[in-house]
Specification:
With 304 residues, the protein is mainly α. It has one domain. The chain contains 13 helices and no strands. Helix 4 crosses helix 9 and helix 5 runs antiparallel to helix 12. It is globular and about 50 Å long. It starts with 8 loop residues before the first helix and ends with a helix. 47% of the residues are buried.
Length: 304
C-alpha cells in the first residue's frame, strides 16, 4: 500500500497546494497523532487483535462504499494481487496486532515513536532487496535512529513485559518496512485508493481467526470501546487513507515525509496531556535521535 501517489516535478508544479490542501495535511497529522492514545484506551476495553479486526472490517466497508461511489470498484487485477495480500497481511494485520498488543503494556506516545521508525528499517532492507544505494548519509541515519530507539527502549533492558512490548513494536515497524519495499519494486495497475478496501478486507479476514483462537469469542462492546472504534475505524483508518492519497497528489514527497514525521512527536504531547504519560530527558533525547535518523534516511532516499 502506497502512502502517497508518486509524483513528477511537473505534476507538483501544475497543482500547487492550496489552503485546503494544507488543512488536509495538518488534519492528517493530528488524526494519526490522536489515534495512538485513543487506541490505547480502546485495547483496554477490547482485546487488541479483536480491536484490529473490527477496525479494518469497519474501514473496509466504508472504503468499499467510497470507491463504489466513485465508480472504481473492481476486483484487484492479478498483477496487483500479491501486493494487496502482502500489504493487507503485513502493513495492516500484523502492524495492527503487534502495536495493539504493545499498547496494552506501554504508554501510547513512546509506542508511536518506535512504531513510526519504519524508514530506519526500510533503508537497509531496500539496499539488500532492491539494490538501492546505502550511502554515508543513509548509513548514518540508520545508526543514529537505532541509537534513538535504544535510548527510548532503555527502561526495558532489565527484561520483562516491557521488553516484549518493545520487540513487538520493532516487529510492527519491520512488517511495515517489508510492505514498503514491496511497493517500491511493484508496478501498479490500479490506483492505491481502489486497492485499499481489498487490503483492509484481507487484514480483517486474517485477524478474525487469530482473534477467535487467541482471545476467544468477542465480548460485549462498551460505550467507551465503541466510541474509540467510531474514531479509529472511520476517521483514523478510512478517512486518513483517503486523505494521505489526496494530499500526496498535492505535495512533494519531501513535504509529505516531513509532515508525517511530526506525527509521533505530536502524539507524544497529546498522550502526555490526556493520559499523563511521563516525559523525561532520556525519552526526549531518544525521540530527537530517532527523528534525525528518520530524516536522514528519508531525505536521501527521495533523491534515489
Amino acid at each position: 500500500m502506497r502512502s502517497f501517489e508518486p509524483q513528477t516535478a511537473a505534476s507538483i508544479q501544475a497543482a500547487r497546494p492550496r489552503r485546503r490542501d494544507w488543512l488536509l495535511l495538518v488534519s492528517l497529522v493530528l488524526i494519526w497523532a490522536v489515534s495512538w492514545p485513543v487506541i490505547k484506551i480502546g485495547v483496554g476495553q477490547i482485546p487488541p487483535i479483536w480491536y484490529g479486526c473490527l477496525r479494518y472490517a469497519i474501514a473496509a466497508i466504508i472504503l468499499f462504499g467510497l470507491v463504489g461511489a466513485r465508480g472504481e470498484l473492481a476486483a484487484p487485477p492479478r498483477s496487483d494481487l500479491p501486493l494487496v495480500v502482502i500489504s493487507g497481511a503485513l502493513q495492516m494485520a500484523a502492524y495492527s496486532a503487534l502495536t495493539g498488543l504493545a499498547l496494552t503494556i506501554l504508554p501510547p506516545g513512546r509506542a508511536s515513536v518506535l512504531a513510526f521508525s519504519t524508514p530506519i528499517v526500510v533503508a537497509p532492507l531496500a539496499a539488500w532487496r532492491l539494490g538501492e544505494d546505502l550511502g554515508p548519509k543513509i548509513a548514518a541515519g540508520v545508526v543514529i535512529g537505532c541509537v534513538g530507539i535504544a535510548v527510548i527502549a532503555s527502561p526495558s533492558f532489565a527484561g520483562g513485559r516491557q521488553a516484549t512490548a518493545y520487540a513487538m513494536l520493532m516487529g510492527a515497524a519491520a512488517a511495515w518496512a517489508i510492505a514498503i519495499v514491496t511497493v517500491r519494486g511493484h508496478r501498479f495497475t490500479s490506483s492505491a485508493l481502489s486497492l485499499a478496501p481489498w487490503q483492509m478486507l484481507i487484514a480483517a479476514g486474517l485477524l478474525f481467526p487469530v482473534a477467535v483462537s487467541v482471545e476467544g469469542a468477542p465480548r460485549r462492546i462498551s460505550l467507551v470501546a465503541a466510541a474509540t472504534l467510531a474514531y479509529v475505524a472511520p476517521v483514523a483508518t478510512a478517512f486518513a487513507y483517503w486523505a494521505v492519497v489526496e494530499a500526496g497528489r498535492r505535495f512533494a514527497a519531501s513535504t509529505m515525509s516531513m509532515a508525517l514525521l511530526a506525527t509521533p512527536s505530536v502524539g507524544l504531547l497529546i498522550s502526555a496531556w490526556v493520559l499523563h504519560e511521563p516525559i523525561n530527558a532520556s525519552l526526549l533525547a531518544g525521540v530527537a535521535l530517532t527523528a534525525i535518523g528518520i530524516r536522514l534516511t528519508i531525505a536521501t532516499a527521495q533523491r534515489v
